[in-house]
């Protein structure tokens, strides 16, 4: 179980409070859709949960192990178990999909592996297995710069899994994608939760969150206003977070 208690996040020298004491908990295997208007704090929440941003206050624990107490960012041990998927994932455009999966995220790979792409044979097989699972085996040796948006997102997901992520925070992962590609990406994320027990929290449009997610968080002005499981939001609930 992952527990969040009184998460606070401020910017501009603590003059602007972006997240206002968010408290929640969620289980392994859940896929949670975060909805809310622009500026409600969705991206900041995802980055905080994925340990990509320091907290100004609050506590964070996984299965009883405390990661953050009273603020901070959390140790590298836990950051390595988290993946943060951006709208446009950072891939090396001149390297193949396989190489991108193997050598890790831009800025987080050792200098030697970035330059040479050297990997162990078991890493290679693990990467090929993940690419095959997500329908990308035929793209393994295609340079990332030539992949479609949906393919790039799935490569980023494969990369996260190969490097040990158990928790994935996805910031509008299907923005700009055609409906078929968006469906493929969201089905991929959903299957990670239902079949592999991963945990996904994703900022999504309300109609996609209702269709693909087991749970919906409604964020408004930095506060968690709604936490709904197993159903669509009512019209009144949508109005409460300014989505109508």
UniProtKB/TrEMBL annotation:
Gene3D superfamilies: P-loop containing nucleotide triphosphate hydrolases. Residues 2-244 form the ABC transporter domain. Pfam families: ABC_tran (PF00005). This is Phosphonates import ATP-binding protein PhnC. GO terms for molecular function: ATP binding. Keywords: ATP-binding, Cell membrane, Membrane, Nucleotide-binding, Translocase, Transport. It comes from the Bacteria.
């Amino acid at each position: 179980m992952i527990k969040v208690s009184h998460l606070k996040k401020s910017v501009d020298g603590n003059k602007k409070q972006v997240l206002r004491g968010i408290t929640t908990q969620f289980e392994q295997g859940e896929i949670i859709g975060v909805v809310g208007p622009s500026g409600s704090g969705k991206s900041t929440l995802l980055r905080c949960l994925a340990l990509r941003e320091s907290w100004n206050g609050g506590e964070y624990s996984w299965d009883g192990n405390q990661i953050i107490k009273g603020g901070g960012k959390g140790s590298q041990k836990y950051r390595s178990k988290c993946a943060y998927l951006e709208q446009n994932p950072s891939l090396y455009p001149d390297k193949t999909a396989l190489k991108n999966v193997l050598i890790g995220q831009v800025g987080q790979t050792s200098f030697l592996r970035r330059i040479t792409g050297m990997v162990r044979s078991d890493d290679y097989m693990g990467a090929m297995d993940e690419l095959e699972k997500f329908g990308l085996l035929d793209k393994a040796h295609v340079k990332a710069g030539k992949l479609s948006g949906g393919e790039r997102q799935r490569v980023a997901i494969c990369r996260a899994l190969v490097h040990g992520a158990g928790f994935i925070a996805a910031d509008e992962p299907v923005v700009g994608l055609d409906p078929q590609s968006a469906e493929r990406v969201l089905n991929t994320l959903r299957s990670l939760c239902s079949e592999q027990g991963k945990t996904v929290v994703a900022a999504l449009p309300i109609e996609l969150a209702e269709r693909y997610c087991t749970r919906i968080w409604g964020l408004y002005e930095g506060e968690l206003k709604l936490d709904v499981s197993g159903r669509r939001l009512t019209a009144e609930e949508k109005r409460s977070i300014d989505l109508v």
